[in-house]
Amino acid sequence: MTKTLLLILVVGLFPFFVFCQADSSKKARHFEQMDMRDWLIQKKWIKPRPVKTSFFLPVPIIASNPTAGFIYGLGFTYAYRAGKGSERMSSVNASATYSTKNQVNLNMKSNLFVAKDRLVLNGDWRYQVNNEITYGLGTRISPLRTGIGINGIPTLKDSLGDPLKYTLIRLHETGSWSLFKNFFAGLGFHYDHFSNITEVKLDDHDTLFAYHYNYSVKHGFDPSKYSVVGLSLNLLYDSRDNQVNPYKGYYGNINYRINPTGFGSTRSSSVLLTEFRTYLSFDENHRHILAFWTYGEFVASGVSPYLLLPAIGYDQKQRSGRGYTFGQFRGEQLVYGETEYRFPISVNTGILGGVLFVNGTTAASKGDNIKLFDYLRGAYGGGLRVMLDKSTRTRLQVDVGVANKAVGFYLGAQETF
Predict the structure, then answer these.
(1) How far apart are alpha carbons 394 and 403 in whole angstroms?
(2) How far apart are CA 87 and CA 373, in angstroms?
(3) Measured distance CA(126)–CA(63) in Å, rounded
(4) If we measure between CA atoms, which residue out of 151, 147, 146 comes closest to residue 71?
(5) Of 297, 375, 401, 302, nearest to 141 (Cα)?
(6) Cα first-last separation, the chain
(7) What is the pLDDT of residues 325-378, one digit of tens each?
(8) Domains of the chain by range and CATH?
(9) Which residue in 108, 310, 313, 364 is a FRET match for 274, CA 20 to 30 A apart?
(10) Is the Cβ–Cβ distance between 231 and 265 less than 8 Å?
(11) Cβ-count burial of 280 within 10 angstroms (0-12 exposed, 13-18 middle, 19+ buried)?
(12) Mind giving me the DSSP string for 123-138?
């Protein structure tokens, strides 16, 4: 328990130690936020153009995975303001990939402000013929992985994990209407259908470590397919000054989802999601920022199928758990926290910046009598940021996360949170 408390303190206070070491005694330099286009214009490599309120960035995707093979495809991020009278930033992230072993991943995640910012539409749509490595429930056992991961996907074989293959169809959409300033409330529809689930450990007749199969049989699920369909009540508070890259403000979300068998769920359940983020600036130009993110997901009643239990990397944008692979920690209850210090490298232009981060995860397992905060697993790392578009504050993300001798590399656009 002493180690757990120590790690919680490190997660919460680490950026303060870093910031306090910054030399704030130097005289303030002239600062004007610039982006890569400004730099190219200065070099006279391109001509100036009118400033836009939107930014579109295509991103090629190339990766390799032992189960999926060679992966290739294209992704994009699009940030924009809906029109006149809109003060909030909307964003869409989507990708399409295919692999040499017939793995398919089509997904679109959206956070849209429409009707003059009075309505928030939050979507997560996916079609995946996918693979995932799972390690059972709880955070008591932390696999001694020494491999390398890219964007949460391992690139090396892992004998400790149980690889799964499955087909997923997901349609999640939540609409929340503004009741008063910064506060929204609404309803959501959630559909998840898993099919064609196969388990490598089970095929190898290793039932002891066939985590998915054992859990499914114990709780009355067909190990090869199941569905979860439900409605949710959503409460949202959002005072961030920019939804793509906040410099200040608060974000809070409470989502309570009910999944009855009458709607098509294999077994009834209810799930509670709580999330909070805040951003603190330490100078008038917002060059030094301390950001906090925490969320908890809890199976409140009934039984949830294995692949829909709370897990790291299962948040909407799949950004949690830097340093670990998707789904490495899961359980009937999960609490995750992360803090990040964002600082300038190019102090006069703000084009190039850096981040340092630490995170912690705890998950419960009823079957193993593991409660939340009995075991806490942490990771740390840092990265670079490149301001691609100052009007939307879109930055290129290049991060390295370290967790228990494993290293993860992360490439993307926009901030982690």
Answers:
(1) 27
(2) 40
(3) 19
(4) 151
(5) 375
(6) 29
(7) 888 899 999 999 999 999 999 988 889 999 999 999 999 999 889 999 999 999
(8) 2-22+29-413 (2.40.160.50)
(9) 108
(10) no
(11) middle
(12) EEEEEEEEEEEE--SS
